[in-house]
Amino acid sequence: MDTYTILAIPILISTLWLFTANLSHSSHPHFINKRICLLIAHPDDEAMFFSPTLLALTRPENGNHVKILCLSNGNADGLGQMREKELIASADMLGLRSQDDVLVLDSPDFIDGMVTKWGAEKIADVLGQAFGGPMSTRKDSNAEAPTATIDALVTFDRSGVSNHPNHIALYHGAKEWLKGVMKEKEGWRCPVELHTLTSVSILRKYISFLDAPMTMLLGFLSGIKASRRPDKSEGPKQALFVSDMVQWRKGQKAMTSAHKSQMRWFRWGWITFGRYMVVNDLKRQSIG
User: Fold this and answer.
1) Residue 133 region, left (φ>0) first, then alpha (ψ -120 to 50), else beta?
2) Three-class SS of residue 14?
3) Using alpha carbons only, what angle is made at residue 26 by residues 25 and 28, rounded to the nearest 5 degrees?
4) What is the DSSP letter of 71?
5) Whether the Cβ atoms of residue 195 and residue 152 lie closer than 8 Å to each other
6) According to the model, what pLDDT value does residue 21 have?
7) How many other C-beta atoms are found inside a 10 Å radius of the C-beta of residue 8?
8) Closest CA to 158 of 25, 255, 283, 256
9) Which of 11, 24, 143, 236 has the most crowded Cβ, counting Cβ within 10 A?
10) CB atoms within 10 A of CB 216
11) Cα–Cα dist 170/46, whole Å
12) pLDDT tens readout for residues 110-139
């Protein structure tokens, strides 16, 4: 391999990265002037898994109001109070407006752990208390449009990215809540869109921004398939967020500077090579 080829490789890689990042910045007009909640299980989920999403949605020109609801304070090692403060600091780095937009629960119903089961009904109850949408018992309840105080809910998908049971429970709890919102509301559109972070294979999980072209291609093919459906009223089913180099470093600093208590040796590998530090693809879920 000659010198020119060696010099060209990093230039080509950087160009590809910037191209995909810039393309993704203009590919999500659906998230404009929205009230959005990121639902997570533990402090540091927002940085390790959702930093590209947060950095995109909190851009001032998009006019979104983003909140984070974290169902546990990550007290498995007795560091719950510290981790709550770390989450607030991380959220500030990732663009949230105020620490009042971060809510962390410390409940016996949501104990941090790989062997603890979080009930979907209990998660739905928390979401209902936070964002409304109670189930009506009136006979004519279908005459009233369903309501909530957020427009979009973002969380993990049914595989939880890392197969963590707490992550997976959030998906089922979010679905349960929205089913309740839409109970006896036949014919109405759900007031809250549910967007979930797509889980990928172990290989794709550790190729950083190089996974962006693959994700874009899969999204393009999915879009072609969706365009053939007769009902296109609900808009795009997928959204792609790719951080540029500056945003990638912000996501890393949210871990290294804010979540210092969690920076064990293996997390350095994650924030360096993990695709979720650079690439997030969200899929809008059907409620039913």
Assistant:
1) left
2) helix
3) 90
4) S
5) yes
6) 65
7) 11
8) 283
9) 24
10) 18
11) 14
12) 999 998 899 999 999 999 999 997 544 445
